[in-house]
Design brief:
Distance between the termini: 48 Å
Oligomer: single chain
Radius of gyration: 23 Å
Helix content: 25-40%
Number of domains: 2
Number of helices: 16
Strand content: 25-35%
CATH class of the largest domain: Alpha Beta
CATH superfamily of the largest domain: P-loop containing nucleotide triphosphate hydrolases
Structural class: alpha/beta
Shape: globular
CATH topology of the largest domain: Rossmann fold
Length: 481
Amino acid sequence: MPALVLGKLVKSYGEVRAVRGVSASFDAGKIHAVVGENGAGKSTLLKMAAGVVVPDSGEVRVEGALLSPHTAAAAIARGVAMVQQHFALVPVFTALENVMLGAEPVASLGRLDFERARAKVRAVMRDIGAELPLDAAVETLGVGDRQRLEIARALYRDAKIVVLDEPTAVLTPGEADALYATLRRLADAGRTIIVVTHKLDEVRDHADVVSVMRRGELVVTLAKREADVRTLAEAIMGGEPPAPIERRAGDLGATALRVVALEQGRALRGVTFEVRAGEIVGIAGVEGNGQRELVRVLAGLDEANGAIEGGPIAVVHEDRHAEGLVLDASVAENLVLGELTRFARFGWIDAAAFARESRARFDAAGIAPPDPTLSARALSGGNQQKIVVARALARTERGAPVLVVAHPTRGVDLGASRAIHDRILGCAARGVAVLVVSADLHELRALCDRILVMARGAIAAEMPPTANDREIGAAMLGATA
């Protein structure tokens, strides 16, 4: 009997049908990947499986028994847990407190039994082959440790079926390999692992079974031996995948962005570099080594000692929810966020001019569903990313000479990633100086003229785009040792 069975699940949001009668089954002891374009319904489908979203119709069965009531609490009680794409951790709580939150063991007289919780968490950590400082605040942990902490929290609740939504989106290649080693250990122990991802090389290397969704429907399920990257790409897109990026060759202009000796506590330590007009420079590094702080300083959100010459700067921030979107505002409003004064006439918004500009950006970005009046919250993570990228790119078209993009294609599908890459290359071809911060080394090699490696808040190395993962990884780890 399959561990989890989905029967003809349907879910609509207004007139948008996100999932269209999908049936699927998931076996214990396997890593099952679910792939597809942004807005294909992957996350919605798995949220229904985990009781987080209530289907309009259809059913979920766990080990043969109907999930009823259809709630997250009922699913957790039946052994189904979901690790969301955006971490649900309390930053100021310790790792131990986060794991036990909501499932606290109680000793006599109603006291919390921290020692019993600590013993169980340590046992879970041994099971997943991880070591975490349980008394450290989560805000002090790296992204990879936070991801493992989310998995530990699921297992602490005795989850037999673990669903992970884009678990490697914020991880370096080494961290991703370590995570999949953990997931393989769990699958070999008899648990059911379901992973939503856009990274087809990870699917090829680690998944036992792959299901492809397109436009709310499940179009094919393949065994590992059948799931080569090209076959998956064709199934996802319904045709030929995009051709590889062709890096442009052209003359570079004068220096458009100069950063000199930036200092900010332990986060930035003497960061110095230049980006010329028409040049694309990449920033690589293990998450938490100053990349986020650098972007925030360049955006003018934080202060630092040192000098920044050049600008104005159009920015795509790392955290689209916290820094890039007003989630309850419409897509149209988010596309022109910070620019409403352009449409003001005698204290009133020129609604026609606003609609024309937001619609042009909407169409250029290929956002789905095709309704700019929807709230940004209603969109998939990948389509939310398209909003923040489209807004920054539009500002370069209006004259901003520098573009800084942090993780431009995080959580974005194959076709949309290619479209974003092409627009970034187009910016450089127009003479814009571009700085790309990314954990995806393939992305950096494809786009950049040169790659800077950050470690412990400093520029530790400069490398050509021909450098391989091993060479860049050695610079990242060697500098932080």
